[in-house]
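Researcher: Next entry in the queue.
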Amino acid sequence: MFRQKYFGLITFTVVLGFASLSAVQDKGYAGGRDPFSEEKQNVKLIGYNDLQGREALQVTCKSDPEHGNGEYVYVGFHAGLHLNLLTGRQEYNGTMIIDISDPANPTTVAHIPNDMKGANSRAVQVVYDYGPDGRDYLIRNYEGGKVYKFEIFDITGRDQNPPVITKAGEITGTPANSGEPGCGGTLQSSAHKGWWSPDSKLFYAAANEPGFRGGKDSSHLIIWNLADPANPVFIGRAWLPGQKSIEPDPRQPLNLHHPIVDEENGRLYGGYHRGGNVVSFDISGILASPLIPSDPVLVWHVDTEPPGRGTHTVAPIVYNYPEIPNFWKDAFPRRYVLVIDEAERSCDPVRHKLYMFDITSETAPFPVETWQVPDGDFCEKGGRFGPHQFAETVNGELNNFKDKIAWVTYFNAGVRVIDISDPYNIKEVGYYIPQPNENTSAAEPRQPPVIQMNDIDIDHRGLAYASDRMGTGLFVLKYITK
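Model: Structure for this entry, 482 residues:
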């Protein structure tokens, strides 16, 4: 059996003070008055946290109060330096833990800072009751300068006073020369977003290693087994033709943004942020033997660009009879993927969009519908206008869209609520657009501050948590059905 050990347990401890952070002086929104909204429809603000003014990206909800694990949301940040009111110190942006047991008053419990200027840890995943000792762990990415890695923290003691958070391990690379000359080694140019499964113990991530084309527009899928978080075991990798250095140059960027994993059905989905590719990989072989190195198998691949622009998030949806009108009952169940682009500028000759693909026949996936924000003056507002991400998980599990509602962040157009009950007729049913506040940074030099709603996730109650990448804060939202 192949097993690669990188290092033993890292023993230093991060000890952070505990304090209650009152994010808003006026809590009137809890009773109906909303001081934050610029515009809204069928969405109610439930709570708010200012995140100490930090520039936020990924939001991950994970609650398990029945087993004593509490109710929390975890937030990853872009690079920056801000005062941590819990410790009284200036700290480089890292990862924040927020107690959401009272969603009207989300309270910061701890901030795990980065150790250097310019490093960002924008992606975060957590697992609970993990391993033989039943510990809770957090894994975050680390991209700073020439250092690319994933850091693993034991957060079991986060609710102590003061909370004690211990670094348990890290992933710095893959075994060198594994399988062919020049392939493998210390991670380079990318260590982005990942997916940690508590069932298989596998961590699937978008990253880059020697033997593959480098640069900020290059990453592929790499898989490690984290049964022992202190000793990551390399399992396998997957890529599109042209990503390996020895393959013909595709003359287009190929950059997997992040994987979304459906282990129950043996599939992994991903969008290529640069290049517009949408992919599905078969991971059933790896799941059958999660400690034996092997590579996922490409099932299907669609290139949306042109005319599309840079896919970001891809997640599966199943429809059963008679959920879709005008389909014969024998055509069910039907499988689709919801796909969304990431906008990178205020406006584009070809608008970024949300797509629905029918993948019932995996040999012939095809698009059946697209959706964009229908109106508004967003091109004139400044910053980015367009989609970024939809909520792909609910309380840490794959979002199966049971209610056929998708929460979507849309940069300066705020948060949009989308009805996908008919995949051939997608409709908007609500939105929430915050206004800038004293913490909001300008998206462009010499321009007024503008919100840039960036990431969103859903908790065990069905509430949505949305972050702003310009420092405006974290918004707890509820969709109000008519």
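Model: Residues 13-479 form a domain with the Methylamine Dehydrogenase; Chain H fold (CATH 2.130.10.10).
Researcher: Noted, moving on.
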